[in-house]
Write a structure and sequence with these properties.
This protein is mainly beta. The protein is 0% helix and 54% strand. The protein has no helices and 11 strands. Strands 2, 4, 5, 6, 9, 10 and 11 form a 7-stranded mixed β-sheet that branches. Strands 1-3-8-7 form a 4-stranded antiparallel β-sheet, with no helix packed on it. Strand 7 and strand 8 form a beta hairpin. The protein is globular, with a radius of gyration of 13 Å. The relative contact order is 0.32.
């Protein structure tokens, strides 16, 4: 059974940084496309960063240049370094794995809250 466990969320002032981590179990992260998805209050899910099995990465325009996705296959972990945070980055952040052809993910974590105060 695939399990994804996020950590590292919290409250920070605008301009600050946070690093999210996702510990994966039940599969080998190096074989999977993984990503981070967020959902702000009253809004739909937004895929913000993806990394595939070859290490190719992509970002949503809203976070390009501020966020960095990475993974450590030896630790079966995924990370999201978030710099220059803005109030609009406030959301629940989900780790996800197993990219689908429709642009979604097969497996999801429970989420970690990020709150940015201006």
């Amino acid at each position: 059974q695939v399990q994804l466990l996020e950590s590292g969320g919290g409250s920070v002032q605008a301009g600050g940084s946070l690093r999210l981590s996702c510990a994966a179990s039940g599969y080998t992260s190096s074989n999977f496309c993984m990503g981070w998805v967020r959902q702000a209050p009253g809004k739909e899910h937004e895929g913000i960063a993806t990394i595939n099995s070859a290490g190719w990465v992509s970002y949503a325009d809203s976070v390009e240049g501020r966020f960095t996705i990475s993974k450590d296959s030896a630790k079966n972990s995924l990370y999201l370094q978030m710099n220059n945070l803005k109030a609009e980055d406030t959301a629940m952040y989900y780790c996800a794995a197993g990219c689908t052809a429709a642009g979604g993910y097969k497996f999801w974590g429970q989420g970690t809250q990020v709150t940015v105060s201006s």
